[in-house]
Design brief:
mainly alpha; 72% helix
Length: 130
């Protein structure tokens, strides 16, 4: 473990120094020598924190909605296979309950986000999010 920590420290300290010595880090100026500054492209295409949070929430809802549907089907399967067994029925009821709670949390987060965005847009008078 100690050797791994020492090796990681060595890598994180020496690689940037080697990159600087090889001319890899030019301080944001193009190596062509014309003095122009290199621009980084934004892969997310968001320009504000509000848009970033909205994008992350969209991704979470897009992943969470099929998960909720899957667990509803799974809980239904537990109900069907219980055949009157009290412990399996209790497990199925608990699965339904927590699946519905998770779905409501997803919908609540989406709704709360839209309400907050609408309020920010009304107060500022401009379209800052969405």
């Amino acid at each position: 473990m100690v050797i791994a920590v020492i090796y990681c420290g060595y890598v994180f300290v020496t690689f940037p120094l080697i990159s600087d010595a090889a001319g890899g880090n030019t301080g944001g100026v193009n190596p062509g020598g014309n003095g122009s500054v290199t621009q980084l492209q934004n892969p997310l295409n968001v320009t504000s924190i509000q848009k970033l949070v909205a994008r992350i929430l969209q991704i979470v809802v897009a992943i969470g909605a099929p998960v909720v549907i899957f667990f509803l089907v799974y809980a239904g399967f537990l109900f069907v296979t219980a055949r009157g067994n009290e412990t399996t029925l209790a497990r199925a009821k608990q699965a339904i309950f927590w699946t519905i709670i998770g779905g409501l949390i997803l919908l609540g987060a989406q709704t709360l986000s839209q309400v907050i965005c609408g309020t920010i847009n009304q107060v500022t008078g401009q379209q800052t999010c969405k």
